Amino acid sequence: MNQGDVAGAGIAAHLHQHVVPRWGGDTNFMPVVGHTKVLPQLLGETRKLLADAWPEPPSGVIGS
């Protein structure tokens, strides 16, 4: 969880949750060290993508 400028929210009192936490001066961390780019996405959108891609359990499996 991050809040304020470090969160990248643009609104000081806005609270953000990140899979990879943010900190001051991390602007180039992801592309340089992680060799990837940061793409903002709403949690609901991420959940839908994961749920749609998750296979259904075989019939007879507990919880199906």
Total DSSP E strands: 2
- Report the portion of residues in β strands: 5-15%
Average pLDDT for all residues: 75
Tell me the series of helices and strands, N- to C-terminal: EEHH
Low-confidence stretches: none
Summarize this structure as a short list of keywords or feature phrases.
25% helix; 2 helices; 64 residues; alpha+beta; two-stranded antiparallel sheet; 2 strands
Can you walk me through this structure?
- This protein is an alpha+beta fold and 64 residues long.
- It has helices at 29-33, 43-53, and strands at 2-3, 15-16.
- Strands 1-2 form a two-stranded antiparallel sheet.
- The mean pLDDT is 75.
Quick description:
The protein has helices at residues 29-33, 43-53; strands at 2-3, 15-16. With 64 residues, the protein is α+β, with helices and mostly antiparallel strands. It has a two-stranded antiparallel ribbon with strand order 1-2.
